[in-house]
Amino acid sequence: MAPQLHRDPPFRAEHLGSLLRTDELLNKKTTFEKGQGSKEELVAVENQDIKDVAELQKKLGYAGISDGEYRRHMFWGSFFPGLDGFEEVSNVDPDVFRPYAPDVAAFLEEGKKPGESVFCTGKIKHVGSTYIDEFKYVASLVPPEEVKNIKLTLAAPNWYHLRYKEGYAYPKEVYATDDEYFADIAKAYQDELQTLYDAGCRNVQFDDPNLAYFCSDKMLSGWKADPLNVISADETFEKYIKLYNDALSKRPADFHIGVHICRGNFVGSRHFSEGGYDRIATKLFQELNVDTYYLEYDTPRAGGFEPLKELPKHKNVILGVVTSKFPKLEDKEEMKKRVHEAAKFIAEGNQISLEEALNQVGVSPQCGFASHREGNAIDRDGMIAKLKLVREIANDIWPGQL
């Protein structure tokens, strides 16, 4: 049987999961981290703010609602520290990081150390989900028939591999090769996905800046010049595709899996990487076994829509043509033209009609509004205006559809 297009989810109007926090929540988290408040007080504020933002999303017409990532400090959450075999380490020597990885380079340019550092220290094993309570709380806020629509965002399985120089991602006495290391990470994700599925989750989105880094000429040049690397960047990209496919190999057919190819979204709306999808498009779209790609297309740094010729007929693309980084509103009619332009390349690549190609498409902001809890250079009113614009674009192109 030929692979089928998975719909609803994804939806015609989407957002990328993270939403701006309230000042009260930010202050409460800071207070708690200073030891000046109880966990119960923090959770009470988180719960109320998640309830409020879930209502906001419903009011704005979004079906795939999230909790805004309100319980997290950063977009990836706590998956890796929650595994046996990983430890969070502070005051790490910057020399262990690849200085040409775009996010690392951005930190080093500003004289700062890269953010949260989690290292493999022993055999990796899943010992319980750190995402499950986030999902269950949002599920308690929606009718039973809408639980399947809830979007839960997950850390990319390759996140703590590319950041570190060759030889630093894991101890050689624990794993002799990348393949051994990746096999246990894949097994941990299989266990995580099954746990989430058993709780009713049917819609996840991996947030993956690393895959976008393989579009960056600066990163690729740095990789090639690094004498420690034993395989090429292209070979590493292929290993990451296999890691994903192994991690997803046991997922049920009704479990929607998407991946957001992120170009960076840090405090003050800082982006990290540039370069079109052209050089990774064939492998990304044809070999990665996901249902949906959430792609950033808000600025010229993402290149053109031509790579979408490689998108198969059984996969979706959500076009991030509206920026989440700054408050200036895009022109709705211009954005609709861009969506149709993208669909023309999908149609050309698959030799199908424009209408058929549009059935594979949705629209969204290009990234989250607060991948880091401090958020982008946009306020709450600006965020709501952007979400309204996305919904209006979707309504015009796909009237009557979620």
Automatic annotation (TrEMBL):
Domain Cobalamin-independent methionine synthase MetE C-terminal/archaeal per the UniProt entry, residue ranges: 180-378
Protein origin, superkingdom: Eukaryota
Pfam families with a match to the protein in the record: Meth_synt_2
InterPro entries attached to this UniProt entry: Met_Synth_C/arc, UROD/MetE-like_sf
Cross-referenced Gene3D superfamilies: 3.20.20.210
Gene Ontology molecular function, alphabetical: 5-methyltetrahydropteroyltriglutamate-homocysteine S-methyltransferase activity; zinc ion binding
GO biological process entries: methionine biosynthetic process
Name listed for the protein in its UniProt record: UROD/MetE-like protein
Organism: Aspergillus avenaceus
